[in-house]
């Protein structure tokens, strides 16, 4: 089964504000998709719905072939069980702009806590897994340090390792480098690129067009909560069909 994620006619409303207005998306195993769009176009809301940090107002989300939630009487509206969502959140890793590491725990402690608490792993197994994932993002040598002793770029790589330690089926990145000093952006993008090359399935919201161009299999341009344009990086970045995409690209280069 090759399709990791399918999104059908996803809508999200906050009261009267209709933020996502019918998103369709299919993501295959190993794909890296970059999502571009102006501020307020609904990028974060889309990722948050995929991880059920926000409940979709309408639409169907299928993860690894399993439809999430149950149909209600109202067409398109689903209801979700807490247990189901907790299991699912463990399968979908997310990395935010703010790293939110626990300051009172060591780097390895931060990576071990999820597998121990949520997956019932022993401390020993969790430590091995943590070290494997810290190595994956090139920061194993900081395992015993506290987050405050690390640079922002290093902290963000720990946050990536923490998400990876849950052995997710896909990873979501929401402007993971936007809070970093410019000189620290590259190391985080490089870790993300390596992950993509390892075959991780990834949805990446970023304004880093170089990353989109070099790493993405597909680029999606969101506008007003809808997919306004979609294609290969060459198509969308070099030869955009839509005026709104061109305007966005002009303001970001
Ligand atoms: P982006 O990530 O593309 O900048 P967002 O998904 O964060 O966009 O926001 C899209 C729109 O939804 C914005 O108008 C924002 O103010 C609104 N919004 C986001 N989250 C909430 C919320 N929890 N409550 C009300 N409005 C929200
Ligand atoms: Mg956002």
Automatic annotation (TrEMBL):
Instruction: Tell me the keywords, alphabetical order.
Output: Amino-acid transport, ATP-binding, Cell membrane, Membrane, Nucleotide-binding, Transport
Q: How does it sit in the membrane?
A: Peripheral membrane protein
Q: Has keyword Repressor?
A: no
In the record, what terms sit under GO molecular function?
Answer: ABC-type amino acid transporter activity; ATP binding; ATP hydrolysis activity
> Where is it found, in Gene Ontology cellular component terms?
plasma membrane
Q: Do you know which InterPro entries this protein is assigned to?
A: AAA+_ATPase, ABC_ATPase_HisP-typ, ABC_transporter-like_ATP-bd, ABC_transporter-like_CS, MetN_ABC_transporter-like, P-loop_NTPase
Carries keyword Amino-acid biosynthesis? no
Which superkingdom, per the lineage?
Answer: Bacteria
Annotated ranges, domain ABC transporter: 5-249
Q: Where in the cell is it found?
A: Cell membrane
Q: Which PANTHER family match?
A: AMINO ACID IMPORT ATP-BINDING PROTEIN, GLUTAMATE_ASPARTATE IMPORT ATP-BINDING PROTEIN GLTL
Kindly provide the name given to this protein in its UniProt entry. Answer: Arginine ABC transporter ATP-binding protein
- Name the species this protein comes from: Neoroseomonas lacus
Upper lineage ranks? Answer: Bacteria, Pseudomonadati, Pseudomonadota, Alphaproteobacteria, Acetobacterales
């Amino acid at each position: 089964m090759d399709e990791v994620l399918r999104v059908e006619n996803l809508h999200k409303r906050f009261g009267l504000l209709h933020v996502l207005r019918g998103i369709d998306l299919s993501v295959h195993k190993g794909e890296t998709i970059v999502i571009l769009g102006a501020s307020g176009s609904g990028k974060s809301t889309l990722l948050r719905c995929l991880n059920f940090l926000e409940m979709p107002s309408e639409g169907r989300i299928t993860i690894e072939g399993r439809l999430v939630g149950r149909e209600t009487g109202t067409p398109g509206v689903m209801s979700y069980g807490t247990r189901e969502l907790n299991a699912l959140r463990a399968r979908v890793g997310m990395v935010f702009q703010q790293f939110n590491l626990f300051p009172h725990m060591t780097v390895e402690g931060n990576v071990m806590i999820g597998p121990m608490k949520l997956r019932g792993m022993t401390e020993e197994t969790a430590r091995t897994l943590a070290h494997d994932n810290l190595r994956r993002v090139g920061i194993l040598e900081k395992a015993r340090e506290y987050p405050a002793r690390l640079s922002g770029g290093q902290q963000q790589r720990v946050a990536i390792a923490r998400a990876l330690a849950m052995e997710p089926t896909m990873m979501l990145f929401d402007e993971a480098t936007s809070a970093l000093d410019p000189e620290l952006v590259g190391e985080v993008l490089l870790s993300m690129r390596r992950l993509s090359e390892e075959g991780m399935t990834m949805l990446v919201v970023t304004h880093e067009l170089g990353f989109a161009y070099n790493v993405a299999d597909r680029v999606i341009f969101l506008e007003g909560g809808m997919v306004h344009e979609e294609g290969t990086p060459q198509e969308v970045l070099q030869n955009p069909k839509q005026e709104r995409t061109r305007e966005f690209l002009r303001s970001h280069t």
